[in-house]
Design a protein that fits this description.
One of its GO terms (molecular function) is peptidase activity. This protein has 108 residues and is α+β, with helices and mostly antiparallel strands. The chain has helices at 34-44, 64-81; strands spanning 2-6, 12-17, 20-25, 54-57.
């Protein structure tokens, strides 16, 4: 069983299980629950984690948080199930479309 995860758009998640694709659109990035959506899709098809033998994830570029979440989920599943992610046992690194917007600490 092969799964594909794409959460690079922070208002949309795409899960593909073999040849069936599931898409969830949300109003706000805060509503994007990629892991919950993945669990729902697997449960709908009566698939257990041990049935998964391959994971593919879109590493980006994309939104900072959306990309990071999808890649983290894929890497954790790959590690826990001892299977390849994007064809490798090495963790996938996210590709961001821009640097994170982190405020610098003010000088005091």
């Amino acid at each position: 069983m092969r799964i594909y995860i794409d959460s690079t758009d922070n208002t949309k998640a795409v899960i593909r299980i073999d040849d069936r694709e599931y898409t969830r659109n949300v109003e706000s990035p805060r509503d994007q629950d990629v892991l919950g959506f993945l669990v729902h899709c697997l449960e709908e098809r009566n698939i257990k984690p041990e049935d998964i033998d391959e994971i593919e994830v879109n590493p980006g570029p994309g939104s900072f948080t959306g990309t990071r979440v999808g890649v983290a989920i894929a890497n954790v599943l790959g590690f826990a199930l001892d299977i390849k992610v994007n064809g490798s046992m090495t963790p996938v690194e996210p590709i961001y479309s821009s640097p994170p917007s982190i405020t610098k600490k003010k000088d005091t």
